[in-house]
Amino acid sequence: MNLSTLLRLGGISLGLTLAMLPQQYAGAQASTPAATVSAAPDEARAIAKDAYIYAYPMLFNYKTLYEQAEDPGSKSYVGGFGKFRNYSHPYGPENKDIVTPNNDTPYSWAWLDLRREPWVLTVPAVKNDRYYVFQWIDLFTYNFAYVGSRTTGNGAGHYLFAGPNWHGDTPKGIDKVFRSETDIILTLGRTALSGPSDVKDVEAIQKQYRLTPLSAFEHSSAPPPVAKVAFPKWDEAKATSIDFIAYLNFLLQFTQPTAPSETELMQRFAKIGIAPGAAFDPAALPAATREAIEQGVADGKAALADAEKHTTSSYDLFGSRQDLNGDYMKRAVAAAMGIYGNTKEEAVYVGTRINADHEQLVGSQPYVIHFDKKDLPPAKFFWSMTMYDLPARHLVANPIHRYSIGDRTKGIKYGADGSLDIYVQHNSPGADKESNWLPAPEGAYDVIARIYGPDASVFNGSWTFPVPQKR
Predict the structure, then answer these.
(1) pTM for the full model?
(2) pLDDT at position 96, please?
(3) pLDDT tens digits for 223-242?
(4) 10 occurs within a structural domain
(5) Can you spell out the DSSP letters for 383-397?
(6) How far is residue 341's CA from residue 324's CA, in Å, rounded to a whole number?
(7) 279 and 393 fall within a common domain
(8) Does residue 19 register a pLDDT over 70?
(9) Are residues 430 and 401 part of one domain?
(10) Looking at residue 377, which CATH number applies to its domain?
């Protein structure tokens, strides 16, 4: 993706001070002064465009934070900070709450507030034939740490997570210390599930995942309490308007100190009132400045929509700050297209909705997806293909209750030469082929393959997902 630079500096100082927002936006730093706007309208529009793109993934990360950690009325509520909410039961066609559900690796969600002290993740020993992972995500949506089969192995362990202002040494009993750029972080755990009969074993493993403040882990006195935070209520209409600045300012107070690579960027953003913890009130702006920022937000939305249309691969959308290397548009596209995607070395997602003739796949037409032995999905851990109807992207009801198929599917049959044929259609392909049948709806559908622990050939282009062929 070729993107223009976001660091355009300069402008005329207007010296305008904004009125303070209500306390609900002031957060932990209620005494922080109001922001100052110094950009002329033309410059303000250009800055607002870039700032909106920068903020976009943080805004929708905050949406998840608010729903999971702050809103007890939300279906997604996990119980607050420092608590796991585990999911273990497979999804079925009756589950319509989420799109493209994943039955391979049920989730374990948790949020941590690291301002007071670090926290410790404790994991049990997991059998070597079972994959598991904890993906750790900061407020910027960077994947900054991984614990699990690929990175730390399947042995039991204690892993410490510290915020940007903790500078202690590795405590006794800790296997590894991970340092976050932000004081608030999210973990998205995944534990491999091989089917309904495996649920109890997965639940037994999940019950052993623990989060403990460092002081409790060391049986020592806890540090003094930190200031209570008043989290602003999530309002998507406001968060995607000029008011995105108020949300961004609230979040930036948990990202201090500023990353050296963003010093100039933040100096530029400050010209439209963006500053950690600072209050922002659009009504206090001159009409021309307010309109310019609103136009900049619209420009940012348009640029993001265009970038999404031209994004053909997800392989490089997710990763650490170093992986993304200052490409804020790519980070925004990642959030828009599928926030919290794994770093490519952990897992990739590929698939198709069209056949060799570039026609939409439909269940009334039988297809075969053929893999030569040398072209089977190159996965260190496992792979699967899941069927979703279109346009809803839900699982598909079928007489054999099979919603995905892969190398862990019981009874799947390979050819004498090691090749594999997957039969994709609405009606049964016949008793001799049902072991390799992925049932489809009568109408349009999408097939998504998930490859866990992919070989480099998956994301360097030398391996490709086979095109469904008509039978």
Answers:
(1) 0.89
(2) 83
(3) 999 999 999 999 999 999 99
(4) no
(5) EEEEEEETTT-----
(6) 13
(7) no
(8) no
(9) yes
(10) 2.60.120.600
Range of the domain at 393: 347-470
Nearest to 189 by CA among 162, 165, 159: 159
Using an 8 Å Cβ cutoff, are 300 and 49 in contact? yes
Closest C-alpha among 346, 338, 350, 341 to residue 313: 350
What integer pLDDT is reported at residue 2 of this predicted model?
A: 31
Residue 403 lies in a domain: yes
Rounded distance between C-alpha atoms, residue 148 and residue 33, angstroms: 43
| Sheet with 210-213: strands ordered across | 176-179, 157-162, 119-123, 210-213
Q: Are residues 404 and 360 in the same domain?
A: yes
For residue 189, pLDDT beyond 90: yes
- In this structure, the answer to whether residues 418 and 462 fall within a common structural domain is yes
Pair of tokens at residue 423 = 């039969």
465, 392 contact by CB (below 8 A): no
In a domain, 43, yes or no: yes
pLDDT tens, position by position, 65-99:
999 999 999 999 999 999 999 999 899 999 887 78
Identify the domain boundary among 169, 190, 218. 218
Residues contacting 50, CB < 8 A, separation 6+:
6, 8, 268, 269, 300, 328
Model pLDDT for residues 140-185, shown as the tens digit of each residue:
999 999 999 999 999 999 999 999 999 999 999 999 999 999 999 9
The DSSP code for 220 is -
Q: What is the mean pLDDT of residues 380-402?
A: 95
Query: Does 8 map to a domain?
Result: no
State whether 98 and 56 are in the same domain.
no
Q: Can you tell me the distance from the alpha carbon of 55 to that of 332, in angstroms, rounded to the nearest whole number?
A: 8
pLDDT of residue 461: 86
d(C-alpha 66, C-alpha 76), whole Å: 10
Run of H or E residues at 333: helix 328-338
Residue 310 and residue 255 share a domain:
yes
271 and 361, same domain (yes or no) = no
Q: Is 367 within 8 Å of 361 (Cβ atoms)?
A: yes
The total number of structural domains that make up the chain? 3
pLDDT for 265-300, tens place per residue? 999 999 999 999 999 999 999 999 999 999 999 999
